[in-house]
Amino acid sequence: MEKRVMTVRKRRTSIAAASAVLGGVLALSACSGGHDGGSASAAPTKSGQAAADKAAAQDTSDAKISITPGNGSDNASINNAAKVTVSGGTLTQVSLSTADGKAVKGTLAADGKSWSPDGQLERSTTYKVAATAKDAKGRGANENATFTTVSPSNSFIGNFTPEDGSTVGVGMPVSINFDKAITDKKDVQKNIQVSSSSGQQVVGHWFNSKRLDFRPENYWKAGSKVTMKLSLDGVQGANGVYGVQQKTVSFNVGRSQVSTVDAKTKTMVVRKDGKTIRTIPISAGSPEHTTYNGQMVISEKYKKTRMNGATVGFTDSDGKGEYDIKDVPDAMRLTSSGTFIHGNYWGAPSVFGSANTSHGCVGLQDVKGAGDPSTPAHWFFDHSLLGDVVIVKNSHDKTVQPDNGLNGWNMSWSDWQAGSAV
Q1: Which alpha helices (DSSP H) does 185-343 contain, by range?
Q2: Quick check: is 31 catalytic?
Q3: pLDDT (tens digit per residue) in 303-316
Q4: Of 342, 359, 378, 396, which one is the catalytic site residue?
Q5: Are strands 294-297 and 267-272 parallel, antiparallel or unpaired?
Q6: Looking at the structure, do residues 89 and 101 belong to the same domain, yes or no?
Q7: Position 107 in a domain
Q8: Burial bucket for residue 259 (CB in 10 Å: 0-12, 13-18, 19+)
Q9: Positions of the region Disordered (predicted)?
């Protein structure tokens, strides 16, 4: 009896031992990833992982997407930003949106190689770009970028005259007024090109840090076309301040009309294309308020406008304007300081051609309301263009300053060239 019990115990011990060994083998098989067929969930070895990575790399798309500006860029261009291109494949989808989710329309090129926004972007705005592409085998590629466009405080623009597509007189310069002071004048000027179909040499002149004008040595040729190309996008105008304009504008030069006011004889001779077409009696500035001499360019035209002496320093003892006429007819500006050639209905007809009575303007006979085409003022207004030249001579005053209005013609050509930064 005792012997049998001992035999049973031995069998149990052997089974337990066998179970322990088998359990150890199973545990080892579950962790080793051996070559004799371990579990399907087994983790690969380092050598196996490397092989898998290599295989995945060999299967990557040949399409390479490029987004400009790069991810994280700031002070990005509002004209050339968000350009998406691809090599080794074609773009399948591109989206551009502001940080708050507003989508920006764009166009994918017919060949699928590039995408760009349809219009100019906004300044001081963060944009997100997401692009996808595929290669010839249909394998996909993705690229994302976020950038912020240049802020108003870090950018400058130039307000220019004349307007694109306009027709002007032979004296109209290209005049650009920048909204911030320019210190890198050379870089800015060399990125502005002004040319004429007449072949005339055109030179820029800086009057100050904010104003740059262009003109030829003599008046523009009648019938010519003048083109200005602004390539200022990304051009540094001052430390940390960059241009944003990228455009081409052009204007046409009409017939040549130059009118000469003689303050002594109190007449104005109007010459068109070199021929006298009319002589008009005028009333220039009085002996106390003489009219500037010199070549002046018509820069603005108003059928009727208000003229208040207080705005140009003509005040009485109470500080009020010496005159305040709310409906001056047929008025055309000659200087920024307030000189006009305009209609006068309040003066006696006898003063025109016989007496100088104004506060410095050139007056022509007119009627209240500017509605009579038979009056000299109305006729001259209707026959004048912005950019026409009015020359005043024989006045007991100095020559108008070249920067007082669009009147750079009062500077010698050598002095004009000396003001160029290039």
Answers
A1: 185-189
A2: no
A3: 999 887 666 666 66
A4: 342
A5: unpaired
A6: yes
A7: yes
A8: buried
A9: 36-75
